[in-house]
Specification:
single chain, mainly alpha
């Protein structure tokens, strides 16, 4: 967390610890101790996104993801976080559209096509879902993603196909 002072870094690490321990109220208190300027740091914003998703407050999660993208457009997590939150808000078509834009920026990130496959599957576009999932498997390797894909409820309509890959 380059650029944060020691006290801010301490509070950020404490917030992360509280989130890992499933105690969001304490994580929020730690994040509130961080200066307003440091709250715009991408890694602090990521902690704020984790807190919003943990509660869950998906509207806030979208807002924080937008802030991550604005602060660090070259970091993939903001783009993935925003689409995930949109999907949780049942705005899956918007999640898919936003993540397609990000795929061009991050062509080697396997999580983007994986999530695109999930969103396309949930929207009923199974041919597109297959294409995105095969792309994710090419990037990450079939053995690493196959188990995840078999257990993913968003990919349930493709489960029997995935099992035969």
């Amino acid at each position: 967390m380059e650029g944060l002072t020691y006290p801010e870094l301490h509070h950020a690490h404490a917030a992360e610890g509280w989130l890992d321990l499933n105690v969001p109220a304490e994580a929020r208190l730690e994040l509130e101790q961080i200066s307003a300027q440091a709250r715009a740091h991408p890694e602090v914003l990521d902690l704020r996104w984790r807190l919003a998703s943990h509660i869950p407050d998906w509207n806030d999660a979208v807002s924080v993801a937008d802030q991550i993208i604005a602060a660090a457009p070259g970091i993939v997590t903001g783009w993935i976080h925003r689409s995930f939150a949109l999907h949780e808000l049942r705005r899956t078509a918007e999640a898919l559209d936003n993540l397609i834009d990000a795929e061009a920026r991050f062509p080697t990130d396997s999580l983007i096509p994986y999530n695109l496959a999930c969103y396309a599957c949930q929207l009923g576009d199974l041919p597109q879902a297959r294409r995105w999932l095969k792309r994710a498997l090419e990037l990450k390797g079939i053995e690493k993603l196959r188990t995840l894909a078999l257990d993913d409820p968003d990919l349930a309509p493709l489960r029997s196909e995935i099992a035969s890959w």
